Amino acid sequence: MAEEQLDWYAILGVERTATSKEITKAYRVKALKVHPDKNPDPNAAKVFHELSQAYDLLLDPAARAAFDNLLNVKVQAKERSDKYDSVRRKMKEDLENRENAFKKQQQDEKAAALRMHYEMERLKKENIKKREEREAELLKQADQLSQAAEAVRQAARNEEATSLDTTLRVKWKKKKQELGTEELTEIFKKFGSIDSCLSKKQGSALISFKTLTGAFTTMAASERGDKDLEAFTVSWAGGSEPALVSSLRAKSVSSPSTTLSTAASTPTSVSSPQSAPRPAFNVAPSSVFTVAFGSSTKGFAGFPSDLCATTCV
């Protein structure tokens, strides 16, 4: 058994492909070095004996073939063992990777659920706060608008609007588009009933509304950048804001944040001053005039229904 474990090629120091001549030469060289008569080493006899066995075995074709076959069997067995070890290592690594991936997935799901819960709670609190702030602001605006309407009503009882007060000067770039009185009327009638439209030259026109409300609403829409008026420059035909509008604007302010232009340019929620609790309404830009005068007050009769109506929300 011990002899089977020896590598005779290694003892002689030759390759498995060595010829008989190469084996003989290698034996003679090593025999001179390890012969007991010339080497005082106590193990020299054993080494020389193994060297002689290797020489005899490798020069015998049948013995050498049997030894080569034994080496091949050992090599194949080692390859199978290495392959098995490799497969087993890979299976172990795959198992560990799957376990780690499963643990990470559980951790990620838990973290995602906690984050979702946190975000939902945050949004809930923010929505409650925003709703409370919005309700408080709506009540404040309703009170301000009610006070502004009363101030307007008192200030304008003895005022009248002239035809010049209800007329606006409209300009546009004539190179970009040519507009006639019919086209201009179609564009501007959405802001109020039009009494007349006069255009002596392209790029400029005078539009007279039937009410001051229509003129004021158009100016407010232009100031806030209404998309239908983007191509136009709108101004008062008299060169400045009518005294009546300025008077109403000044007297309607119950606080620095409440003006007629604010009412005309920003949709506002109001509550009916005659009921408790107060219902909320969406108010059109001309609502301050409507609340102040109604449809029959002198100088403001004939308000267009689409501008003076209020809609319950």
UniProtKB/TrEMBL annotation:
The keyword Mitochondrion does not apply. It is found in: Cytoplasm; Nucleus. Residues 7-71 form the J domain. It holds the Pfam family DnaJ. Gene3D superfamilies: 3.30.70.330, DnaJ domain (1.10.287.110). GO terms for cellular component: cytoplasm; spliceosomal complex. GO terms for biological process: spliceosomal complex disassembly. Its main location: cytoplasm. Residues 257-278 are annotated as: Disordered. Residues 257-277 have a biased composition (Low complexity). PROSITE patterns: DNAJ_1 (PS00636), DNAJ_2 (PS50076). Residues 88-162 form a coiled coil. Keywords: Chaperone, Coiled coil, Cytoplasm, Nucleus. Signal peptide: none annotated. It comes from the Eukaryota. This is DnaJ-domain-containing protein. It comes from Linnemannia elongata AG-77.
